[in-house]
């Protein structure tokens, strides 16, 4: 079973009132209406041996990453966090000091991002450490930016650089781009937004599928992180490694030109391609050659 296929099946089951749930499964977070207000909700989990290695990385880093992944999804909606609840499945015999370290990792990032941990659940089992976190957010005066708004002719822009996140453990220490997403949504006509967790090519494919469009990516414009420089193919690493947690957005050409000129963040923003009408993804080499851009990246399979 493939993760994307199962999520698509869930989306087609229906049963949700669009007046109560303006955004359901399939985006970075759901949007639920509570009276006159909207609540942005996302949930994610991290597993020992999949998203971290407890023996190498330690419990504090595991706790931090569990919250950071969710906050990155909140950022991808250009929302602001309100609070979080965390559920821990601890291996039997797990030391209390290690459990406290998980909380310390959650608390450290929560304090920094104004996202307090307000509750949760604790259990023990025979399996590896599993941490599940749900974060609640609010639009805060900015309409949630979805994956589905990209339009033909839009420029594709990205924050930061890509590839090699596991080589340096950057996947454990990244800073969710909450502030950057707010600036993008407030100052520019942002049509679509996603955080790059599964891989640059794969997450761009998510945007294109949701928007019914295609994309062209300029190979020479893709920002390659120094962590990927020693890879056999640094560009392939940048396109497919994942766990970068940078922002990838689509916006009108003139807006993108202003964004690139402004460079409003401490991290660089790059223009890496454009949205096209056809539903295909292509990579354009410096010599003009075009090739299919496969949606490489991470996908859970059973």
Number of strands: 12
Which sequence of strands runs across the widest sheet? 7-9-6-10-8-11-12
| Structural class determined from secondary elements | alpha+beta
| Count of domains | 2
What's the architecture of the largest domain, going by CATH? Alpha-Beta Complex
Order of helices and strands: HEEHHEHEEEHHEHEHEHEEE
Total helical segments: 9
Instruction: Using the alpha-carbon principal axes, give the shape.
Output: globular
Strand count, sense and barrel status of the largest sheet are: 7 strands, mixed
Radius of gyration, CA atoms, in whole angstroms: 19 Å
| CATH fold descriptor of the largest domain | Phosphoribosyl-aminoimidazole Synthetase, Chain A, domain 2
Please report which band the strand proportion falls in: under 5%, 5-15%, 15-25%, 25-35%, 35-45% or over 45%.
25-35%
Give the rounded overall mean pLDDT: 95
CATH class of the largest domain: Alpha Beta
């Amino acid at each position: 079973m493939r993760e994307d296929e199962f999520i698509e099946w869930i989306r087609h089951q229906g049963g949700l009132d669009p007046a109560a749930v303006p955004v359901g499964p399939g985006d970075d977070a759901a949007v639920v209406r509570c009276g006159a207000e909207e609540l942005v909700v996302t949930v994610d989990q991290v597993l020992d041996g999949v998203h971290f290695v407890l023996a190498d990385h330690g419990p504090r880093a595991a706790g931090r990453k569990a919250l950071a992944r969710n906050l990155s999804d909140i950022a991808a909606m250009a929302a602001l966090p309100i609070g979080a609840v965390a559920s821990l499945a601890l291996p039997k015999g797990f030391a209390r000091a290690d459990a406290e370290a998980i909380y310390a990792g959650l608390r450290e990032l929560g304090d920094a991002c104004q996202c307090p941990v307000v509750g949760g659940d604790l259990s023990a089992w025979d399996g590896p450490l599993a941490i599940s976190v749900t974060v609640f957010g609010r639009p805060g005066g900015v309409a949630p930016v979805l994956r589905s708004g990209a339009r033909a002719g839009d420029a594709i822009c990205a924050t930061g650089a890509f590839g090699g996140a596991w080589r340096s453990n950057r996947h454990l220490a990244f800073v969710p781009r909450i502030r950057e997403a707010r600036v993008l949504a407030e100052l520019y006509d942002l049509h679509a937004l996603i955080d790059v967790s599964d891989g640059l090519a794969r997450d761009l494919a998510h945007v294109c599928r949701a928007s019914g469009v295609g994309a062209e990516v300029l190979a020479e414009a893709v920002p390659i992180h120094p962590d990927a420089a020693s890879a056999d193919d640094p560009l392939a690493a940048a396109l497919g490694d994942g766990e970068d947690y940078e922002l990838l957005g689509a916006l009108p050409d003139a807006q993108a030109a202003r964004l690139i000129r402004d460079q409003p963040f401490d991290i660089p923003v790059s223009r890496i391609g454009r949205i096209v009408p056809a539903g295909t993804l292509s990579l354009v080499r410096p010599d003009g050659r075009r090739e299919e851009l496969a949606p490489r990246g991470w996908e859970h399979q059973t």
